Amino acid sequence: MLFEPFPCISAFKNRVLFVTGPSKNTGKTTCLNYLAMQARRAHLTPALMSVGIDGDRQLSQKPAISMTPGDCALSGEQLLRMSGIFPELLEILPDRSAFGRLCLARAQRSGSVVLVSPEGNAGVMRAVEKAREHADLVLVDGAINRMTQITSWPDAAFLYVVRADTSHFEAAVHQIEHLHLLLSCPLIDSTPGIACDEPLTKARAGLLPQNDEPIDLLDFTKVFLQLGELKALLKRRAIRVRHRISCAGIVLWLRGLSRARVQQALPDSLSVPVFANPYEI
Fold first, then answer.
1. pLDDT at position 58, please?
2. DSSP assignment, residue 223?
3. Strands 16-20 and 72-76
4. By three-state DSSP, how is residue 183 classified?
5. 272 near 4, Cβ under 8 Å?
6. In terms of Cα–Cα distance, which of 174, 243, 227, 236 is closest to 206?
């Protein structure tokens, strides 16, 4: 069913939730702020992280990451000192950034903060492990093509945030259909397949043996094919994955579009729930 009620934040207690999207300015940071607000109302302590740098209005032109006393966040030491949240340092990570040492801190005053991520999957894994020791759930603002690390936590999931307005309607529908096809990739089984350890691009697919054997990948984030290219390939052969990445649902931010129009355009066989902009309520 399309446009289900927004998921209860309590379902993600003691879990890691990535808030992702197909591009910039889709509403990921706004969604992250909403989830953090719901966590506080449910008396859960959120730890806020990012894959990259997020939350500074002047640098990134995005909504600030809001914090209240008790919230945890991962950022650079210099940015924490400038944040106004009167941070209590909980952990100092071995990773460094352009903003000094990376620190996990707890807010003692309300304010906003810039989130900074470690480099590489190993650094993100270390940070998440530390954050889980101090918070009830970890919320990560990240990009769809930097999600391989999510397979390191069996209870982790991601929300896929898409913006749809009159000028981006067709693109939004294609993005959701693209994700649906990737999530539908079966797991690798005992039947023969062609192992592909590199990103699956159109050029790479053309170099593989041209038969009907499935292409075996680590996970769906290794697929770098446009929707038309992906459909054409799937007509000839399957794509299988070693690890599935759990999708908690799609958050669809509508602007100037009716739900009925969007519902008619989306695939009937969507395997994940679709949630409307929670701020509509």
1. 46
2. B
3. unpaired
4. helix
5. no
6. 236
Calculate the CA 17 to chain-centre distance: 7
- For residue 54, the model assigns a pLDDT of 52
Distances in Å between the alpha carbon of 136 and those of 73, 130, 131, 229?
13, 12, 9, 41
Answer for the pair 229, 202: CB distance below 8 angstroms, yes or no. yes
Gap between the Cα atoms of 122 and 136, Å rounded: 22
Q: Which residue has the tokens 């999530």?
A: 183
In the numeric block, the tokens 């069996």 are attached to 154
What gap in Å lies between CA 179 and CA 249, rounded to an integer? Answer: 11
Rounded distance between C-alpha atoms, residue 140 and residue 138, angstroms: 6
Superfamily, domain 9-166+245-280: P-loop containing nucleotide triphosphate hydrolases (3.40.50.300)
Amino acid, single-letter form, for residue 271: S
Q: What pLDDT does residue 255 have?
A: 83
Between vectors from CA 125 to CA 19 and to CA 132, what angle results, nearest 5°? 75
Three-state DSSP at 184 gives coil
What residue segments make up the domains of the chain, in order of their start? 9-166+245-280, 188-241
Token pair 């003691």 in the structure block, residue = 14
At residue 92, φ and ψ (nearest 5 deg) are: -110, 115
CA-CA distances (angstroms) from residue 115 to 23, 54, 149?
18, 5, 18
User: Taking a C-beta distance cutoff of 8 angstroms, is the pair 66, 33 a contact?
Assistant: yes
CB neighbours (10 Å) of residue 253? 22
Tokens, residue 48: 């806020």
Q: Give average pLDDT by consecutive 10-residue segment, the chain, 281 residues.
A: 79 92 81 93 95 53 79 93 93 86 95 86 86 95 67 81 86 91 95 94 93 94 94 96 91 84 83 80 51
